[in-house]
């Protein structure tokens, strides 16, 4: 991808469909005049008076308990330097997004237009009553040290400068495990730190707290070794001023050292310097985007190296997102007055311990690993590890309570863990999982409408992300023109059925099709005519193994597209009828809805087979299906044929698939509300589990429901996912978005993968 295209995509991402990355959403009803009267005047007066009597009630009646301010003056933004508060806002919004998706913490970003320490501190102090915590961001050293110190001392809510402590906490956890693997004692090792900014100073403080001796640390800034001969050192640098006055260069310092910590810039460490280090060297080259020594160069130079970087494309990424969302989560949940050293240290040891535990398969798939396990290439957890939310906050909260800075205690830790797990974002997790699983073994996907801009854009993403290998079908002149417009430079196979060179393939496919269907009255001439149609030809490509999967339906009705695919591909062996399911990523979690697109009024047998196919599809995505057979009645309360067929389907399933967790007929509210179900029908198999599959009695109900959920709930829909076909073919909803097409492409790849096992 060209730099110019990356630039365009980044600008579009931040500006469309709505400028920025975060917004405020109401948490209370506001539909009626009564609602508004409670939300504002006169009802709002009552919580105001309660807070006036007891200030702590602000946490009870307002969003303060889950609201963090991300505050910057823009003096040290990423690698961009001092670009000012206004230009820093996209970064602060991005930090807010990370807080939300990883720990369900709401954020207001605050950009302050001053470089004066006193003005900055007073501004933050004046707005602090609004927030439950303060995350300082991208403030240059040495001012950052003084600002944080004063705010920690003068406010009674958690304050943390993530640029300082985030890297220290994450790298501290990595260091504990690296030393264990290297078989080195922490109080014996010699450490060289290249860099002396806010992050480097905080890292050095953390390492000494872990047991590294100050006398064994040599720290370098842009002027060389920080030692007692240097004058005009800041107070922070003086803490790590070495008595060694003989060493002058970084090269000399690194010789016979055990640990190299890089928090400076690219290419500060040479191969020769690495070679000069002791046995089993530990190198944390954390400069971004390019480390102090290239990862490839480093591991090629020393096979005994244990290395970490700041990059996601190398093992052991030191990523602050492993820390700050979860540290603040724990601090907020016990209303800590500060984030103290005990809480930071708790996070360090929790991260170090988590890296030694068995890794969920989801993480292996997302990171395209066969099996991650504790070792040189895995010394810290991965950012998308779902266990982080239920591990780090717990230890931080316990440390806050034990150290006396927590204002409330947690009595039921098991419940707290359940509450934390409930905060996991499910939609993005599932999409990442689907795409990552597809990338493990990309397949050839033929797109029948690649001369449509959105379809081609989706194919481009599929190609560039390694999800699949697109085969483009359509008018070649239009495809090439569109490819140029969107900077799609990959060389891919393009099929234009209007060109003369396609005639031989058309004739060959026609003969195959004629041979299969001549006993149904099809002539060779008719077969040839049909093969000139995109869907017939593309389906034959898949049938004959020239492609692994098919995506169609962007511009035409569902029945129109399904009919030719069914004729060419047909049903899988043993399948009674094909069906379709939609995976809905709702605010309350993922749920499969069937049949959303094909069977208008299935009988009880069809309904049972649809249930079995949906169950298998859910398992393909890694879910344990808990299935509700929906009706307007509950468990035999009606004798109407519509309810009876659902009962008969259940009887069939209990006989044929006794291991399946399924019940019905049941009304949708009872199926989705465990408390309602338990109170009224406590014998139901669904009462103790969360339903994640809904089987509808007819197409009307299923199709209407999924589209309502999509529009009203804002839920993402993945599908319709075709079930029961002999090959991996999938039909889009009319005018599907680029994202929907990409997701369906990943589904198609996974489907194709499953068929060759």
Give an overview in words.
The protein is of the alpha/beta class and 757 residues long. It has five domains: 3-157, Malic enzyme, N-terminal domain (Rossmann fold, 3-Layer(aba) Sandwich), CATH 3.40.50; 165-318, 3-Layer(aba) Sandwich (Rossmann fold), CATH 3.40.50; 322-421, no CATH class; 433-568, Rossmann fold (3-Layer(aba) Sandwich); 579-724, Isocitrate/Isopropylmalate dehydrogenase-like (Rossmann fold, 3-Layer(aba) Sandwich). It contains 31 helices and 21 strands. The strands form four sheets. The chain has a six-stranded mixed β-sheet, sandwiched between helices. A hairpin with a 2-residue loop joins strand 15 and strand 16 (589-594). Helix 20 packs across helix 31 (738-754) and helix 24 packs across helix 25 (558-568). The longest helix has 21 residues, at 162-182.
* CATH architecture label of the largest domain: 3-Layer(aba) Sandwich
Helical residues, percent:
40-55%
Find the count of extended strands (DSSP E, 2+ residues): 21
**What count of helical segments does DSSP give?**
31
* Count of individual domains: 5
The CATH homologous superfamily of the largest domain corresponds to Malic enzyme, N-terminal domain
Strand order of the largest sheet: 7-6-5-8-9-10
Query: Could you name the ranges where pLDDT drops below 50 across 5 or more consecutive residues?
Result: none
Search tags:
Rossmann fold; 5 domains; alpha/beta; 757 residues; 21 strands; 6-stranded mixed β-sheet; 13% strand
């Amino acid at each position: 991808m060209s730099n110019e295209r990356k630039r365009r995509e980044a600008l579009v991402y931040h500006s469309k469909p709505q400028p920025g990355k975060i917004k405020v959403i109401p948490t209370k009803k506001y539909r009626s005049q009564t609602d508004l009267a409670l939300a504002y005047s006169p009802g709002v007066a009552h919580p105001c008076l309660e807070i006036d009597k007891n200030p702590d009630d602000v946490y009870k009646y307002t969003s303060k308990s889950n609201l963090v301010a991300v505050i910057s003056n823009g003096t040290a933004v990423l690698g961009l330097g001092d670009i000012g508060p206004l230009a820093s806002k996209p970064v602060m919004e991005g930090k807010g997004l990370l807080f939300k998706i990883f720990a369900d913490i709401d954020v207001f970003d605050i950009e302050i237009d001053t470089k004066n320490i006193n003005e900055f501190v007073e501004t933050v102090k004046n707005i602090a009553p609004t927030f439950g915590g303060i995350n300082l961001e991208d403030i240059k050293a040495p001012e950052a040290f003084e600002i944080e110190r004063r705010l920690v001392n003068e406010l009674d809510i958690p304050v943390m400068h993530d640029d300082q402590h985030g890297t220290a906490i994450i790298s501290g956890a990595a260091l504990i495990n690296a030393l264990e693997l290297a078989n080195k004692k922490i109080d014996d090792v010699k450490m060289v730190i290249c860099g002396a900014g806010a992050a480097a100073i905080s890292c050095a403080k953390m390492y000494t707290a872990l047991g590294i001796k100050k006398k064994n640390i040599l720290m370098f800034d842009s002027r060389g070794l920080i030692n007692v001969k240097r004058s005009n050192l800041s107070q922070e640098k003086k803490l790590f001023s070495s008595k060694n006055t003989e060493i002058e260069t970084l090269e000399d310092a690194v010789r016979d050292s055990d640990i190299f910590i890089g928090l400076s810039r690219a290419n500060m460490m040479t191969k020769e310097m690495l070679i000069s280090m002791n046995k089993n060297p530990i190198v944390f080259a954390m400069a971004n985007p390019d480390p102090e020594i290239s990862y490839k160069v480093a591991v090629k130079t020393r096979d005994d190296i244990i290395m970490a970087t700041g990059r996601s494309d190398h093992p052991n990424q030191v990523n602050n997102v492993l820390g700050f969302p979860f540290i603040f989560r724990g601090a907020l949940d016990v209303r800590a007055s500060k984030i103290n050293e005990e809480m930071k240290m708790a996070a360090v040891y929790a991260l170090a311990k988590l890296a030694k535990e068995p890794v969920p398969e989801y993480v292996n798939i997302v990171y395209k690993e066969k099996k991650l396990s504790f070792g040189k290439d895995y010394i810290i957890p991965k950012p998308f590890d779902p266990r982080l939310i239920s591990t780090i906050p717990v230890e931080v909260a316990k440390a806050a309570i034990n150290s006396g800075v927590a204002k409330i205690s947690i009595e039921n830790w098991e419940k707290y863990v359940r509450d934390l797990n409930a905060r996991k974002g499910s939609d993005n997790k599932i999409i990442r999982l689907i795409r990552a699983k597809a990338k493990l073994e990309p397949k050839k996907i033929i797109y029948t409408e690649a001369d449509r801009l959105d379809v081609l854009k989706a194919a481009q993403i599929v190609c560039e992300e390694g999800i699949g290998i697109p085969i483009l079908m359509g008018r070649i002149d239009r495809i090439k023109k569109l490819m140029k417009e969107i900077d799609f430079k990959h060389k891919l196979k393009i099929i234009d059925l209007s060109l003369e060179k396609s005639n031989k393939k058309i004739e060959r496919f026609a003969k195959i099709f004629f041979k299969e269907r001549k006993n149904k009255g099809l002539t060779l001439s008719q077969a040839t005519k049909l093969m000139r149609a995109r869907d017939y030809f593309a389906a034959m490509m898949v049938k004959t193994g020239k492609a692994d999967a098919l995506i169609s339906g962007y511009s035409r009705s569902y029945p129109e597209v399904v009919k030719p695919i069914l004729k060419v591909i047909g049903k899988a062996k043993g399948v009674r009828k094909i069906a379709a399911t939609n995976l809905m990523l709702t605010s309350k979690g993922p749920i499969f809805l069937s049949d959303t697109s094909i069977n208008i009024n299935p009988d009880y047998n069809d309904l049972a087979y649809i249930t079995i196919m949906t169950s298998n599809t859910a398992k393909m995505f890694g879910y344990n299906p808990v299935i509700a057979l929906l009706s307007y009645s509950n468990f035999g309360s009606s004798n109407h044929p519509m309810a009876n067929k659902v009962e008969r389907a259940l009887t069939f399933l209990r006989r044929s698939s006794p291991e399946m967790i399924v019940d019905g007929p049941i009304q949708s509210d009872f199926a989705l509300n465990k408390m309602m179900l338990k109170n009224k029908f406590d014998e139901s198999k669904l009462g103790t589990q969360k339903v994640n599959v809904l089987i509808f009695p007819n197409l009307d109900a299923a199709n209407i429901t999924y589209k309502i959920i999509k529009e009203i709930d804002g839920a993402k829909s993945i599908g319709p996912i075709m079930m029961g076909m002999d090959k991996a073919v999938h039909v889009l909803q009319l005018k599907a978005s680029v994202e929907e097409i990409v997701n369906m492409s990943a589904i198609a790849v996974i489907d194709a993968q499953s068929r060759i096992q």
